[in-house]
Design brief:
The chain is built from 12 helices and 8 strands. The protein is of the alpha/beta class and about 300 residues long. It has one domain: 3-Layer(aba) Sandwich (Rossmann fold), CATH 3.40.50. The radius of gyration is 19 Å and the shape is globular. The structure holds thiamine diphosphate and magnesium ion. The site of magnesium ion (MG) has 6 residues, from strand 5.
């Protein structure tokens, strides 16, 4: 059992690694070495880190196009992520999937997709399989607040409750969908609405609280494994960067810099500067190695075009 300080440090290391990986992506982007569109999770990393803390490699996770953080937090290999972003053969999917379609099934990171809400039913399907086969696996399916406006979210919730499936629905609520705020899009309360399916709901107001996200996720995952049926969790968080791409967009008119500043106050990477400072060198070494691997990896050839696509 780790003591609290060791645990916090481990969670901060993961958060820092994800942040610095995405900052390296920003640095590299103007070179065009990375041509895949990137939906950065900068600001939202603690949610992924806390949720994955007590998932075993056997437990499976499905997420969205904003998926770098989940790939790393679930244990995916960093060099293979970087090579995938570079479109190289050494990438997780041979360079043919790119940033929005990451998967590392060997560690339970089952997939992500560019199509909003499309991985919610995949999670429910995996939970049905786990229940039928008695594998005691827990499944997490992650989606944004915008995905709640898709019909398949509702079909999936109904099916999971009806069949008491071991799936944790996680709404990663940054209150934004592209350039539109939650208040401009939804006439209903997300949590009250979820409750109408007869599912237990939990809300974490500050997704920057690594320990809280970790503790609550651990408890909910345990309940799934024990056959308690599906659970629903909303974690409030904030993305610092534009919806897609490496830039800031505070001049786009749909949000203000002061909205972000509220979140910076609890951002663990600013809250614990001494711990972060100690870790920077190791994090940089890890990222340098991953970039070197990507740069040395060959591009896919014409013959690779039709492999693994049937
Ligand atoms: C089915 C579908 N409809 C619309 C889009 C265009 N689109 C891409 S991202 C996005 C917003 C989604 O917002 P949210 O689910 O809150 O996720 P976030 O980007 O905030 O992480 C939309 C509408 C899409 N990719 N797929
Ligand atoms: Mg959103």
């Amino acid at each position: 059992m780790l003591n609290t300080n060791e645990r916090l440090k481990r969670l901060i290391y993961q958060t820092l690694l994800i942040r610095r990986v995405e900052e390296r992506v920003i640095e590299l982007y103007p070179s065009d070495k990375i041509q895949s569109p990137v939906h950065l999770s900068i600001g939202q990393e603690p949610v992924a880190v806390g949720l994955c803390e007590s998932m075993s490699p056997k437990d499976v996770l499905f997420t969205t196009y904003r998926g770098h953080a989940y790939y790393i937090a679930k244990g995916g290999k960093l060099p293979e992520l970087m090579a995938e972003l570079y479109g190289r053969k050494g990438g997780v999917s041979g360079g043919k999937a790119g940033s929005m379609h990451l998967a590392a099934p060997e560690v339970g990171m089952m997939g992500s997709s560019a199509v909003v809400a499309s991985t919610i039913p995949h999670g429910v399907g995996a939970a049905l399989a786990a229940k039928l086969q008695g594998t005691k696996q827990a499944v997490i399916t992650i989606f944004g607040d915008g995905a709640i406006e898709e019909g398949v979210y509702h079909e999936s919730m109904n099916f999971a409750v009806l069949h008491k499936l071991p799936v944790l629905f996680v709404c990663e609520n940054n209150a934004l969908a592209v350039h539109t705020s939650l208040a401009q899009r939804q006439a209903f309360d997300i949590v009250q609405h979820a409750k109408s399916y007869g599912i237990n709901t939990t809300v974490i107001e500050d997704g920057n609280d690594l320990i809280k996200v970790g503790d609550i996720a651990a408890k909910l995952l345990e309940s799934l494994r024990a056959g308690g049926g599906p659970e629903w969790l909303m974690v409030k968080t904030y993305r610092y960067k534009e919806h897609v791409g490496p830039g800031d967009d505070f001049d786009a008119g749909y949000r203000s810099r002061s909205d972000m500043e509220k979140w910076l106050a609890t951002d663990p990477l600013y809250k614990y500067p001494e711990i972060v400072k100690e870790m920077e060198a190791d994090v940089k070494t890890e990222i340098d190695r991953a970039v070197a691997f990507a740069e040395a990896s060959p591009l896919p050839t014409r013959a690779d075009l039709l492999t693994d696509v049937e």
